[in-house]
Specification:
alpha+beta, OB fold (Dihydrolipoamide Acetyltransferase, E2P), two-stranded parallel sheet, 3 helices, 8 strands, elongated, membrane, signal-anchor, cell membrane, iron, metal-binding
C-alpha cells in the first residue's frame, strides 16, 4: 500500500467514525431537540415525573396566584389540556394571563410542573411560532389576535 493510499484510508476511516458518532448523538437527542412541549403533548407522550423539559402555551385566565417569598403558581394551557406551574422568582415584565409563555423546568407529576425559568413573549403582537402552531392544531387560533414569527416585524395599530 502506498503512502497516499494509507492516508486516504485513514481519512475515510476517520470520516466514517465521525459520521457514526454524529448519527448516534442525533438519535440520542431526538426528543430533547424540541424547543418546547405543549400540555397535550406531555400527556400524549406519557413523560415520567422528573423529566427536564420546556413547556409552552398560554397562561390560563384567572390562574395566577402569588404567595410570599416570590412564589407564583399559574396554569399553562393549549385549550385542550392544562398544566399547573409552580415558580419561585421574579416573573418577566410582560408576563400576563392569556399571553404566550415558555417555561423550563421539571415535570413533578402528571399535570404539575416546577419551573426554573419563565420566558414571556417579547411584545404585544408576537407569539412564538410553536405556540401559534399548537393553537392552530387545536383549533383555537384566532387570526388577528397575535402574529407569529416573521409577521411580528409589522406593528399592529394601537388598540383604542
Amino acid at each position: 500500500m502506498t503512502r497516499k493510499q494509507r492516508r486516504m484510508t485513514m481519512i475515510a476511516s476517520a470520516g466514517a467514525v465521525l459520521a457514526l458518532s454524529a448519527g448516534l448523538v442525533a438519535y440520542a437527542l431526538r426528543d430533547s431537540i424540541v424547543f418546547f412541549y405543549g400540555p397535550t403533548e406531555i400527556v400524549e407522550k406519557g413523560l415520567t415525573p422528573g423529566t427536564r423539559l420546556r413547556l409552552g402555551g398560554l397562561v390560563g385566565e384567572g390562574s395566577v396566584i402569588r404567595s410570599p417569598g416570590q412564589k407564583v403558581s399559574f396554569t399553562i394551557t393549549d385549550a385542550k389540556t392544562t398544566v399547573t406551574v409552580n415558580y419561585t422568582g421574579l416573573l418577566p415584565d410582560l408576563f400576563r394571563e392569556g399571553q404566550g409563555v415558555v417555561t423550563e423546568g421539571v415535570l413533578e407529576a402528571p399535570g404539575r410542573f416546577r419551573a426554573d425559568s419563565v420566558l414571556a413573549k417579547h411584545d404585544e403582537n408576537y407569539m412564538p411560532r410553536e405556540v401559534a402552531d399548537a393553537l392552530k392544531k387545536q383549533g383555537h387560533w384566532q387570526p388577528g389576535d397575535a402574529k407569529a414569527g416573521a409577521d411580528a416585524a409589522t406593528p399592529a395599530a394601537p388598540a383604542k
